[in-house]
User: Fold this.
Amino acid sequence: MRFRFAILTFFLLTPSGAFAQACGGPWGEFLNGVRQEAVAAGVPVDAANAVIAAARQSADVLKRDRSQSVFRQSFLKFSGRAVSGDRLRRGAQMRQKHSAVFDRAQREFGVPPEVILAFWAMETDYGAVMGNFSTISALATLAHDCRRPALFRPQLIAAMALVGRGELALTETGAWAGEIGHVQMLPGDILARGMDGDGDGRVQIKTSAPDAIMSAAKMLEFHGWRAGEPWLMEVTAPESLDWSQTGLAAVRSVADWRAMGVAARAGSLPQLDAALIAPQGRKGPKFLAFHNFTKVYLEWNKSLVNTTTAAYLATRLGGAAPYLKGQTDPAFSGDEMIALQQRLQAKGHDVGKVDGILGAKTRAAVHAEQMRAGLPADGWPTRKLLSGLK
Ligand SMILES: [Ca+2]
Assistant:
């Protein structure tokens, strides 16, 4: 699971001042330095030696790292593809197949089965696509590269420790950035939070779905999952709602939302705080996003489209009805989005990188311009707004 950016979760080994976060330089020298650091921290010499002997610098990995594909799909488009009938059916089958493990994960960590299933589906399509990159070479390459050595060097050392435990093969394959197995976890997270779900005494999140399920639950609990609370609930809201009061930054009590005319589509809303999000604008699907969404899902991935889709998939796997699609204003093309970002920038807004993506900063700028123009401020850009910005 790619909960990898917020905190370096690797705490088995204490970082030592003697080993700076060195990167670059001759490959062999670099690996030797990592080996020394690992051995000093308690990794068996044999394991450290075996890993550096197996590590190859990978041009493919660097290429992937430099060209991470940009995420331009709208919520309706992306969720329409990601939440398919086939995925829901296979999710139900997996739930049944591993029911004892899912029940245990919920008992011990408070995370419901459908939430783990949705992450599993989003990460690897329930284990169908786990990646073909050599894990050790990927981590060594990214640790050597000077873009993010502080993230990847500890992961390489953690991989050495896993090899020492017999829980990682030198030939292991996974994602280009070193994540492994059904829920794509990094070695440091596997060391710190890996769980043995099938009782064979080892943590193997690639070959054992029960191990992956338990480890994912523990990971979610570690990142702040609150048992018994929802993450995302679809709601209806009146057209006349003050849309400037919505968005992730505007958290208020459910009682407040109710007073503003917001209602659950099914069931009843719990007495909690929530933000109202409308990823495709006020005419599209609307959700209340609770702590488990704003704190845990958004830690997993910063893209609102991605996280809302994963969270929505979990609700569907838990039995929720498909969202009300509504009649939304059509999404911008990449070129239109770039034009919008340039015009917003010219008006003094910080839109981050002009990349054609409707990210959090662009949404906030749209929001501000909508308020200025007296339009419903739902953060969803329309052609009317774009032409008004000329
Ligand atoms: Ca196991």
Remarks:
- The radius of gyration is 23 Å.
- Confidence is low (pLDDT under 50) at residues 5-18.
